[in-house]
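Aim 2 progress update. The chain analyzed this quarter is reproduced below.
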Amino acid sequence: MTNINQISIYVDADACPVKEEILKVSYRHKLTVYIVSNQWMRLAVGPLVRKIVVAEGADAADDWIADHMDQKSIIITADILLAKRCLDAGAVVIGPTGKAFSPDNIGMAVAMRDLKAHMRETGESKGYNPSFTKADKSRFLQALESAIQLKLR
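Predicted structure tokens:
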């Protein structure tokens, strides 16, 4: 059984639409949160929040998260390759829309990512991303709470 103080949340924060929600949940559970980004972010933070600003670079934030997380960590990211790295290391990984990544679905997620990248490169797709909704936020909050409870078991 994991002690609540051993659980940490790592946020791939540059494009994360649920940073405020993550902070509220982390305050309620008294969890340490690492907000990792390529630029300084203005957020109201408390003593358990660590803002990490990494060097510019395509994967600098991803690399920092992958190098510092462990099996007791919860990772919040929309980056499929970072999700795979963290899953492979034993972490729980959730997308900002509440989609939980797992060993069962990460292979398909990576394949779809590669297919979409190929379609954008060939001009077959414009790379449309759906807008973030209240339902996405609600699903995310449920998924985060479930992940915390899972880590506590």
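The beta strands are 8-12, 32-37, 49-53, 73-76, 92-94, 100-101. The two ends are 5 Å apart (CA to CA). These observations will guide the mutagenesis experiments scheduled for the next reporting period.
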